[in-house]
């Protein structure tokens, strides 16, 4: 065909390149169906409207396309590669993401969650002395804020112990699960399942009042002022309490993820022994500190602080992945 002539090449009319027509030499590999139209489906020619075939019209990978053709290809790619109902760009083998692809949306959502969470925590901390810092130097503010934040925590603990401990529990569970998916795996900080992290936060909220009541009950039946009771408390923590809490956690994680109750129970029975052996390498030494050094009102805070590491381990175990390699 001569310069500027229209050539039939499937669904897209082709304009033969001419000096007066601007062309683009950088060509993106088209989506599968577009490649079929441009290359004749791997056969002996491109079907014309009358059912015949024009072998001369077949485009090779090195051909040049005009701007009009490229715009048509881009439009077809967007149609072919739009996100389907389950969020996968299955037509494009992950190579052509829609304009609002699932990966981009996930990263954006995760970034917003992190900015909001850490921003709120930072704002709360630096404003603990709001209205009192007028005339203070930066050094005075830096020295006073940590002490006043601790005083605020103690006042809240005395006034609303269950609420305060529950809030701390939620924060620890959220942070522990996020760390297990990102930092402990060496992954990007935005590469985490936000729904899973929020589910763990919900479980932490449910556990908060239960943990508070357990330690109150433990102190009533085994007062720590009797030395031998500390050994009994550690034994009770590492047997009855640990088995019950970990079993509930594993069941809750799986049930909230959509697993059927029977299957979740079978999975829990299969994993609980491994978790118990892991816990026995970790918690007895921690509880030696819990029942000897830490005052009773602050035991939940101490245990929750250590829980930051343990919950990351537990999140990995709950997912069935190797330690440090996934959620637990």
UniProtKB/TrEMBL annotation:
<dbReference type="Pfam" id="PF04117">
    <property type="entry name" value="Mpv17_PMP22"/>
</dbReference>
<dbReference type="GO" id="GO:0005737">
    <property type="term" value="C:cytoplasm"/>
</dbReference>
<keyword id="KW-0812">Transmembrane</keyword>
<dbReference type="GO" id="GO:0016020">
    <property type="term" value="C:membrane"/>
</dbReference>
<keyword id="KW-1133">Transmembrane helix</keyword>
<dbReference type="InterPro" id="IPR007248">
    <property type="entry name" value="Mpv17_PMP22"/>
</dbReference>
<feature type="compositionally biased region" description="Gly residues">
    <location>
        <begin position="39"/>
        <end position="48"/>
    </location>
</feature>
<protein>
    <recommendedName>
        <fullName>Peroxisomal membrane protein MPV17</fullName>
    </recommendedName>
</protein>
<keyword id="KW-0472">Membrane</keyword>
<feature type="region of interest" description="Disordered">
    <location>
        <begin position="34"/>
        <end position="56"/>
    </location>
</feature>
<comment type="similarity">
    <text>Belongs to the peroxisomal membrane protein PXMP2/4 family.</text>
</comment>
